[in-house]
Amino acid sequence: MPIKIQDSLPAQAVLEKENIFVMTEYRAMHQDIRPLNVLILNLMPTKEVTETQLLRKLSNSPLQVNIELLQTASYTPTHVNAAHLDSFYTTFEKVKDRKFDGMIITGAPLENVDFEDVAYWSELCDIMKWSESHVHCTFYLCWGAYAALYYFYGIKNLMYDEKLSGIYEHRVLKPTSPLFRGFDDIFHAPQSRESYVTAGQISEVAELELMADSDEAGVTIVKTEDSRKFFVTCHAEYDADTLANEYYRDLGKGMNPHIPRNYFPDDDPKKQPIVNWRSTGQLLYTNWLNYYVYQSVPYDVDKIGKEDETK
Question: What are the residue numbers of the active site?
Answer without folding.
Answer: 142, 235, 237
